[in-house]
Give the backbone structure.
Amino acid sequence: MTHPVFVDETTPTARALLVLEMVQNSPGIRGEQLADRLGMTDRAVRRYVGTLRDAGIAVESTRGKYGGYRIGRGVRLAPLMFTASEALGLVMAVLEGRAHDPTDPVGQAVGKIIRVLPQPVAEPVEAVVRMSERTPDGHSSAPDPQVTAGLVQGSSSGHRLRVSYRLGPDKVREMDVDPWAIVVRFGKWYLLGWSHTAEARRILRIDRVAGVEELAETFDVPADLDPVAAVEEHLSEGWRHKIEVVVEAPLRDVRCWVPRKLARLEEIDDHTTRLLGSTDELDWYAERLAGIPRPFRVVLPDALREQVAVVGRRMLANAGLPAGRHAGADESERGSGSARS
């Protein structure tokens, strides 16, 4: 079994493990480079390499200009050496790519990493696993692990944070925020919370957070908070074209067809639902609406209505039907023709 290792650098065993870490990080590193970086003699390097070999770790060495040490394929697996940032970054990458399930092999591997971390490192890592509400997608925008750890610690402990938020290349705003939750959505990490600077709920991109400072004030998370729903509804708003569509179907059915990232849903009556959203890409939005298997009416904007018509004509053409005709009409005409004959 391969274990992450965190070591005290002052003991002989620790220094042997540091030699191992250097060889793992820089395959082909020469003995004099190891000695220089670790502040020891060439003889000491050879002694620690011997210690690793005695432990069953295959450290290979080759002579010559391009020679050096590297890890070979031995009987036993070498320990893996992680810094605190590397361990947290690894856990974040796993969470970004898939839901955390402690029963699957990846979830079990994450659990093993967390169990051997030192307590100061393990606490923010465990908090990231516990508090990162997520839904998957393949487009990454990974934040800094140390910044994320600071946000998660504040969220976990219930302490207000002062964050430095990048609004542009040369513009940073200081904000005092109650960090309610961390949400991973479509490969991006978001902080959901209450901004005391703006006196409003805010959703911040964590990759734009430049710094975090924990404050003395504490907070309570709203009892009815649904972090994923709040972020997804936010992502459906704020774009250039305001959308309103009425669907001839009850709310419970429309929820199955329309993701929260696309629109906010309102019940008009037992048989009708209003869809409210926004977009910068009307053609894309029209294609999403085409997936609704019930009649709907575009209230606004007119440009979306035109794009829905474009999608409709394309679908008719794909079915081999002229515009203004549909399969039901053809069936009716064939039926009428049969009756006349």
